[in-house]
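re: the backbone from monday

yeah here it is again, tokenized this time
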């Protein structure tokens, strides 16, 4: 395991805007506030969602689209730079009216309502290509 000690005193509460993309709003916020490294969690509801599943054998993402209203029962993620821009790596557990869930890596979702807590860290964290997984991971 690689790790790095981080420091940070900036904390934010945010209310996501209805009708806009969940992840894009986090990335826009990070760019606006000059946040190059952060961790966040949130909850709320979305009107639709596209999840990406990373197939470990194929080493590629496959999309799964859900065109239905879903509760964001849980959202966890982090912000770091990818190709120089803030990237909000976002995972969610989404639930339906009957309590069943779908979950995974969130690519996009139209916000119905959303609330976030963000903890920003000093310094910059830039993702780098990892040959073992073919993913862009943190070089710590
Ligand atoms: Zn992911």
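seq for it, each position gets an aa:
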């Amino acid at each position: 395991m690689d790790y790095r000690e981080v420091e940070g005193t900036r904390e934010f509460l945010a209310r996501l805007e209805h009708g806009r993309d969940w992840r894009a709003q986090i990335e826009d916020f990070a760019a606006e506030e000059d946040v190059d490294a952060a961790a966040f969690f949130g909850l709320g509801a979305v009107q639709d969602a596209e999840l990406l599943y990373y197939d470990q054998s194929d080493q590629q993402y496959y999309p799964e689209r859900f065109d239905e209203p879903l509760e964001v029962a849980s959202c966890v993620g982090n912000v770091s730079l990818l190709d120089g821009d803030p990237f909000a790596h976002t995972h969610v557990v989404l639930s339906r009216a009957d309590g069943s869930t779908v979950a995974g890596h969130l690519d996009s979702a139209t916000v119905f309502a959303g609330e976030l807590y963000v903890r920003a860290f000093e310094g910059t964290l830039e993702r780098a290509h990892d040959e073992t997984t073919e993913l862009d991971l943190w070089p710590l």
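The chain has one domain: 11-137. Residues 89, 91, 105 surround zinc ion (CB under 6 Å).
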